[in-house]
Amino acid sequence: MAIKFNRSQPFATNGTVTAAGLHNLVDGLDIYQALITDQTALTTVGTGDKLLIADSDLTAADAPRSVTVQELFDDALTGGTFTNAQLSGNLTYGTATGNRTVSTSASITTGTINNATLGTTTGTAATFTSSTLGTTTATAANVTNGTIQTLTASTASISSGSASLSQGTVSTLNSTNGTITNLSTTLAGDFTISQGTGTIGTQFARLNQSQEYTRAHNFNATTLNSGTSIAWNLAENQVTRLVLSTNGTLSDPSNKVDGATYILIVSQGTGTNTLSFHSNYKWPGGNQPTLTSGSGKTDIFTFVSDGTYLFGATSKNYL
After folding, report:
1. Do residue 251 and residue 301 come from a single domain?
2. How far is CA 52 from CA 66, 68, 75, in A?
3. Which of 282, 275, 276 is CA-nearest to residue 306?
4. Which of 30-39, 90-99, 154-163, 176-185 has the weakest average pLDDT?
5. Is 132 a member of any domain?
6. What is d(CA 191, CA 143) in angstroms, rounded to the nearest whole number?
């Protein structure tokens, strides 16, 4: 059987044990490992269970003190630093105060972190620079890079295109770029987006159906520059004026659109000037019109294009 006590106190065989000798034996008693390992093992340990502990504030001659499991871990965890704690089970703590740092590759499956430091990321009004979050609820979260499966937030800001929101509700969304797969919102001006599909109301002009306008609509009238060769950019000057100060020629107009209508208002400046047209202007009978002579006289030319030519009609001699 293993030695459990120090038997260094000598006694003679079949001798008499004196009180002094027994006292010396007990004073020098050492407890060996076998004494502990031979005891019945506990299957569970409660917070109120007690341990014997050698208090470092006492001397070697003093007896050990008792401490509960609760007191041991409360004092040890509060007053110490554990640099390489390995926790394989679930870690749960209640209301935590102060700063908490979770190391690299840590996984938090459930709970609320009011003020978190995650790598280069800080919480409360949290910024997650690169993260994958399962079901996440945030009050004012800034997500610059990552995937959020289900988001419920009062104000969310997305600063890069690599952030993806697959579902959820965002009350106020600010996004400089990126793709939102299933966005549902109603925008000012009678425009609604539901699950990524836009619907235009009656306040918008629509290309694929007829509408009745309740207010006047018009093209912005512009002015062409007089000269010997006159350029006409139809994309920017659908209704335009030309006041001639010299004889000129209209060159082939740019940006012709099949089916579009264009209007040119030509007025004489001082004296009488002529205006010639490029061959891509087409006239009834092939005859180019002649301007009305006299200062201030005005002629109006209306064109319809087939994408290659402008087919013109003339209204002349306005004062």
Report:
1. yes
2. 5, 9, 15
3. 282
4. 154-163
5. yes
6. 27
Number of domains in the chain: 2
101 domain-assigned:
no
Domain residue limits at 174: 113-181
Amino acid, single-letter form, for residue 194: S
What proportion of the chain, given as a percentage, has pLDDT over 90? 30
Q: Which of 293, 297, 242 is nearest to 264 (CA)?
A: 242
CA 92/CA 87 separation, integer angstroms: 11
* The total number of residues written for the chain in this structure: 319
pLDDT at 188: 62
Q: Are residues 170 and 226 in the same domain?
A: no
- Report yes or no: 273 and 312 within 8 Å, Cβ to Cβ: no
Q: For residue 174, tell me if it sits in a domain.
A: yes
- Across 126-135, 198-207, 262-271, which has the greatest mean pLDDT? 262-271
DSSP letter (8 states) at residue 288: P
Q: How confident is the model at residue 180 (pLDDT cuts 50, 70, 90)?
A: low
Return the SS3 of 286: helix
Name, in order, each residue with C-beta under 8 angstroms of 138's C-beta and a sequence gap of 6 or more: 126, 151, 152, 153, 156
Could you tell me if 301 and 247 lie in one domain?
A: yes
Residue-wise pLDDT for 197-229, tens only, equals 777 777 777 788 888 888 888 888 899 999 999
Average pLDDT value for the chain:
77
Task: Tell whether 32 is covered by a domain.
Answer: no
- DSSP state letter for 206: -
- Window from 170-179, 214-223, 308-317 with minimum mean pLDDT: 170-179
Residues 165 and 251 in one domain: no
Tell me the two tokens of residue 39: 């005891």
Sheet containing strand 229-230, strands side by side: 229-230, 248-250, 275-277
Last residue of a domain, one of 159, 181, 203: 181
Per the CB < 8 A criterion, the answer to whether 247 and 274 are in contact is: yes
Global pTM reads 0.45
Whether pLDDT at 1 is above 50:
no
